Amino acid sequence: MKELYVFCEGPTEQGFCRQVLEPHLLNFDCCIHTIKIAHSRRHGIISRGGIGKYETLRFDIQSTIKSRKQGQGVLFTTMIDLYALPADFPGKANIVRNPQNPRPYCEALEQAFGNDIGDARFLPHLQLHEYETLLYCDPDAFAYSFYACDEAIAGLKRIVADFQQDIERINDGEQTAPSRRIIGLLEGYEGLKPSAGPDIAEYIGLAKLRDRCPHFSDWIGELENRIPAA
Question: Distance (Å, rounded) from C-alpha 106 to C-alpha 167?
Answer without folding.
Answer: 15
